[in-house]
Write a structure and sequence with these properties.
- The protein folds into two domains: 170 residues, no CATH class; 159 residues.
- It contains eleven helices and twelve strands.
- Helix 6 packs across helix 7, helix 7 crosses helix 8 and helix 9 crosses helix 11.
Length: 361
């Protein structure tokens, strides 16, 4: 669960308190329904009925509709009628554009999707508006690890970066406080996620910079996934990848091993198929990893707590062991990736050693 902030911030400069920033509506209206309302408001300005009310907002509204339609190679092309529906038959936002186009928008902040909801939404809209071209868009201002289900359902993803690319120039064209406030909150979120590039790791505030790091690591490790993992002490944002497995030919029992970053330590994990003994396989894998690390002159630390469960940590590297920084104290991503690849190599060598031992027994 990533942290949210609220209220006003007071800037400090030269020991004197600066005037607080003006209250921002969207610091308090943090729910997805509030975000729905903003997008509905902006989209509604695209209708020609409001062309003379505020020329700048009318142009921004039309540009926003066009930006979303362009994801499906469509455009307003002189259409003047724009009708916006909120929470229409369970669809977050539905926009009729002219008499032949329908924008179907699933709007999310941090939440993901469930089951086949996107496919069901498309089917409902197609039944309600037969003969019209439907442009499904997944509008996401927060971050998530995977969008496979979004793509499979035929939705086009428009994320925070793409939104800011459109809304930043819009803010230069209009000083409307609703627009300015919403963009300010998006900018703050983007800055928090990108802080992994500009703040020393020891100063990272909460989960936000870890999201930025994990997204960057996905460019290096295609199988990396991440999400919040709850536990009694408050939980953490976990990223896991490099899954390997084997089956003991004598017992038929399966074992899965992988790497997991736990918002700090890099953990070597094992998942043992249900059975009478989990401690034995756990300890055997730890011994194999330790021996493999010694041969390559690497040092693994023992887990902070020895546990026997479904997913068990057998060894770890502390943050400073694997996360490398430059002379400026900031994260050196390239050097960090090299360390992570070395950890992946340990896993691969360990798995090969286990398989070789099984073959000889």
């Amino acid at each position: 669960m990533i942290e949210r902030t609220g209220g006003n911030k007071t800037l400090q400069s030269s020991g004197k308190s600066a005037a607080p920033t003006a209250p921002n509506l969207f610091k308090y209206a943090t729910k997805e329904l509030s975000q729905d309302a903003f997008f509905c408001w902006l989209l509604a300005w695209a209708d020609d009925a409001y062309g003379d009310s505020d020329v700048a907002l009318h142009g921004i509204g039309r540009g926003f509709v066009d930006m979303l339609l362009a994801e499906h190679d469509l455009a307003m092309d002189g259409r003047t009628r724009v009708v916006v529906h909120r929470q229409y038959n369970y669809v977050d936002i539905l926009v009729e554009v002219g008499d032949d186009l329908v924008l179907l928008i699933e709007d999310k902040v941090h939440a993901g999707i469930h089951g086949d909801q996107l496919t069901r939404y498309k089917e409902r809209v197609a039944e309600t508006f037969p003969g019209r071209r439907i442009a499904p868009v997944f509008l996401k201002t927060g971050d998530q690890a995977r969008y496979d289900k979004v793509v499979e359902a035929g939705f086009k993803r428009v994320g925070r970066e793409r939104l800011l690319g459109f809304l930043r120039p819009a803010c230069a064209a209009s000083s409307h406080p609703i627009l300015q406030d919403f963009v300010a909150v998006l900018e703050e979120m983007e800055a928090a996620v990108q802080a992994f590039r500009s703040a020393p790791p020891a100063d990272w505030d909460g989960s936000w910079p870890w999201i930025g790091l994990y997204i960057s690591l996905q460019a290096e490790f295609a199988d990396l996934n991440w999400q919040y993992t709850p536990n009694p002490s408050g939980g953490f944002l976990a990223a896991w990848w490099h899954g390997r497995s084997w089956t003991n030919p004598q017992t038929g029992r399966a074992y899965d091993v992988y790497l997991q970053i736990e918002q700090g330590p890099l953990c070597f994990k094992i998942a043992v198929e249900d059975g009478p003994d989990k401690v034995g396989p756990r300890d055997a894998w730890r011994s194999t990893l330790t021996d493999t690390a010694k041969r390559s002159e690497q040092t693994l630390r023992p887990p902070r707590r020895i546990a026997s469960g479904t997913w068990m940590t057998v060894a770890r590297l502390e943050r400073d062991d694997w996360m490398k920084v430059g002379a400026d104290g900031l994260l050196d991503l390239d050097a960090t990736v090299i360390c992570l690849r070395a950890a992946m190599g340990l896993v691969d060598e360990g798995v090969q050693a286990v398989k070789h031992a099984h073959a000889e027994s």
